[in-house]
Amino acid sequence: MTRKKIDLAYIKNDVARKTTFKKRKSGLMKKVSELSILCGTDACAVIYGQHQANPDVSPCPDGALRTITRFKQMSKMERSRNILNRESFLMQTILKADEKLKKQMNDNQEKEMMIQAIYGSLPADWLQKLSHVDLNDLWLSVEKNIEAIEEMMTSLEKP
C-alpha cells in the first residue's frame, strides 16, 4: 500500500510539530544505526532539537566523535569527492529529465506513425518526405517490432 505524498511545509501546530520531530528523529537515528551495521560503515547523526539543551547523538557520543574526527582529518579533496553541490545536482537532474523527454518523444513519434500506418491515414508519398534520420528511426522501429514478433512466435511454438 502506497502512502500519500506529504507537502513539506512548516508545521504550525506546536504539539504536532514536536510529535513529528520526535518520531522522525527516532526514525533517522534507527536508519543511521542500520546503515552502520548493515554496510559496515562509520555513520553518525547529531540532531539539535528546538526545545533541547543538548543534541541527540547516534550511535553514541564517543562513536560520533570518532567519525567526525576521522572526517575532519581527511583532506578537502577527499571530503568533497562524492559531495554534490546544488548546481551539479540540478544539472544531473536536468540531464536525466532531458533524456527521459527525448525517449518519450521518440516513443510517441513511433506510436503515432504506427497508428497512421494502421489506419491508412498516411499520404501515398509519405516515405519520400521523410528525412534520412526519420527513415533510419523507422527502420530501427520496424526491426525492433519484427524481433518482438519473432520472439512471440518462438515462445508460442514451444510447448
UniProtKB/TrEMBL annotation:
| UniProtKB keywords | DNA-binding, Nucleus, Transcription, Transcription regulation
Query: What's any GO biological process attached to this entry?
Result: positive regulation of transcription by RNA polymerase II
MADS-box domain boundaries: 1-50
Extract the Pfam families matched here. Answer: SRF-TF
Q: Which Gene3D superfamilies match?
A: Transcription factor, MADS-box
Keyword Transcription regulation annotated: yes
The protein's location, in the record's own words, is:
Nucleus
Protein name according to UniProt: Agamous-like MADS-box protein AGL80
Q: Which gene encodes it?
A: LOC110756034
